[in-house]
């Protein structure tokens, strides 16, 4: 059956496959077309021998998008490593994994069935326990998809499009996925005696506290917010807040300013923690203003030889 559908509706070109979009289409094909755009999210790779699945680029860990976001600083060859190539002397290469991945992901990999032998890795359907594609679950998926139309764009897509340096985008991605270590998180794991924010000592140090709710962060944001309704700004939860501002829906805080200010506040917190030095709010505002200006010039191509320096 699949070769009939392939012959009738797909055409190979130099750049890939073209999908037929018009003319008479069978009911099955119409159904398949409806779920085509869902496939990247609806399928994942089941690791058997681990020799086909790419460790960073493919979706293979349960409930996780591809790990490529953590591979930004790796050389190209390392980004193309397969899962089996991450095995060293009969075990995962933990020294390497711990250096580049957050702890919870390293733990999840530790619990993942170990790739063994030379069996070929297989693509599986995520929505059935067996991993087999069924028309029923595909149909249900289209219904869920249709029910939430117009579907908001996934937050990470907007984050990656933000016209600001890579490090600020990577930071926002990690923040949106709660992959940053704070005192609140350390205290939950009994690594530190209390969760308090060392800057204001007025509440637990969560991600949102550091980049928005700490009085220090609030002071800096207030300078840039101008006439933006402040009370709304400080009310939403972390993911809605990031989503709203990276999609550029605010007329006052554009996506570059948003990404840069969040990142600077986080960096500032780390400097405070390790060097016991805290920039004044005025210094922070001046540094952010200058950096945003440089970034805007660079991204608008006004300064061709301009290099953005953090
Ligand atoms: Zn604080």
TrEMBL record:
Residues 133-221 form the Reverse transcriptase zinc-binding domain. It comes from the Eukaryota. InterPro entries: RVT-Znf. This is Reverse transcriptase zinc-binding domain-containing protein. It comes from Linum trigynum.
